[in-house]
Amino acid sequence: MSDQSLENEATVASTEPTQETEKTSKTYSQEEFDNHMAGLKSSLAKKYERQFAELGDINELKKLKADAEKKKTEEALKRGEFEKTLQELAQKKDAEIQKRDAVIKEYKVNTPLLDAAAKYKAIAPAQVQQLLASRVRLNDEGDVEVLGADGTVLYDDKGKPYSPEMLVRTFLDDNPHFMGAAPATTSTKSMVGNEGLKPETFDLRKLDLSKPDHRKQYQQALKQGLV
């Protein structure tokens, strides 16, 4: 509190009317007034000093405030890092789910389509698989659903859902130009030599892609440009 404030408070206190001042008026000398003011200032100063003393050293109070603000800032940064970590974990989980779904789709959709195209002697099984892949999906339960041209799920005459194999067979029946006409003349076992597949003896229609060695021959044919 400033000296001017102390003087104002002292002036108010000294001018408050009492029963005695109402009855009699006393005149103070300048010295008496100065002494009275000095005593009042000292009394008020001690009063406020005691109040601040209860709170502690002013420098320590400033340090405590600064430390509290620093801690608050650090906690905010930690929260931000924690939220970032959660976000990264969520992204990693989503990536793992997508990878898992891709494996399931490969097993339940792509491979059955490719196997069926080879089974029914399509000229280019991989091409048929690619053409029909958009017509097969996995529902929320992970079951295979075959779609019609209008996007609705297909069912057979018995009310059972279409399978990828049924889709391929129907497609090849409707599009016979995707099937080869020449009969098989050689065994697929004699198609592969040390240099790879022999074009003159390779017959795609003889491949059964459900068999590992036939799938290997199909991959070799892709490399040699025979498919």
Write the layout of secondary structure elements.
Blueprint: H1 3-15, H2 19-23, H3 30-55, H4 58-119, H5 125-132, E1 136-138, E2 144-146, H6 164-174, E3 192-193, E4 196-197, H7 212-224
Antiparallel strand pairs: 1-2, 3-4
Helix pairs in contact: 1-3, 4-5, 4-6
Structure description:
This protein is mainly α and 227 residues long. Among the domains are: 72-180, no CATH class; 182-227, no CATH class. The protein has 7 helices and 4 strands; from the N terminus they run αααααββαββα. The strands form 2 sheets. A two-stranded antiparallel sheet has the order 1-2. A two-stranded antiparallel ribbon has the order 3-4. β1 and β2 (144-146) form a beta hairpin. α4 crosses α5 and α4 (58-119) packs across α6 (164-174). The longest helix has 62 residues, at 58-119.
Q: Into which percent range does the helicity of residues fall?
A: 55-70%
> What kind of assembly state do the chains in view correspond to?
single chain
Order of helices and strands: HHHHHEEHEEH
**Strand composition percent:** under 5%
**Mean of residue pLDDT values:** 75
N→C terminal distance = 97 Å
SS class: mainly alpha
Total strand segments: 4
Q: Write down the overall geometry.
A: rod-shaped
- Gyration radius, rounded: 48 Å
- Which parts are unreliable, with pLDDT below 50 for 5 consecutive residues or more? 18-22, 182-194
Order of the strands making up the biggest sheet: 1-2
Quickly count the helices: 7
**Main sheet overview:** 2 strands, antiparallel
